[in-house]
Amino acid sequence: MADPFTFARDGGETIAYRRIAGRGPGILWLGGFHSDMSGSKAQALSDWAEKNDRAFLRFDYFGHGESSGDFAAGTISRWRDDALAVLDELTEGPQMLVGSSMGGWISTLLAHARPERVAGMLLIAPAPDFTEDLIWSRMPPEVQAVVQEKGVWNYAEGGYPITRTLLEDGRNNLVLNKILRAKWPVRILHGTADTDVPWQQGFKLVDQIEGDVTFTLVKGADHRISSPTNLKLIEITLEALLKEMDAC
Known about the structure:
The chain has 248 residues and is α/β, with parallel strands linked by helices.
């Protein structure tokens, strides 16, 4: 795989990205928490876009993958702003937002901020408001105390850090308390065997999006939704969305 391109963000940090030229609407991939643009879903969609002459862009947030920065210093606001900068500076015209896990939350924040730039949304095991609903609310009181006192807690032995700053910032970016008036189609895929982000969390977005929304449960799929069958389902769903856009 060729080295990624980079562009500078505030503070001298750089965001790594890979881009494929093609026709619009373009596809903007928004990855998950502690994941990167080399994952199987991003790569599969990149291959699909290249075969189908679709513009496609994927990138790594601050502190993720091939971008610079310390992951522990990242916040939802920072990663949202990275995505907004990518949307504004590296893409043209309406974009199909494809968000996986945390990328589903970031996609929703983009849609609120730049509704005129959105052609459609495909959310894969979305994790809206996960810092509050799936991390903080699940922490035992003694772990919450550690976070409050020390400012950080390592998720599992050798795992990634969860900081007080991340949790506090997440509360400023909640999307399950506001309505998104979508003038574009939204498709959501979520696995029934997802133990990281239960499908009920993703389903909460249905009530918060005003418009054409379809929620599909994928039997037996876990949070990654990346088996060959699952990847094919993602491609089929994306292709159907884009055909709908082309017909308009």
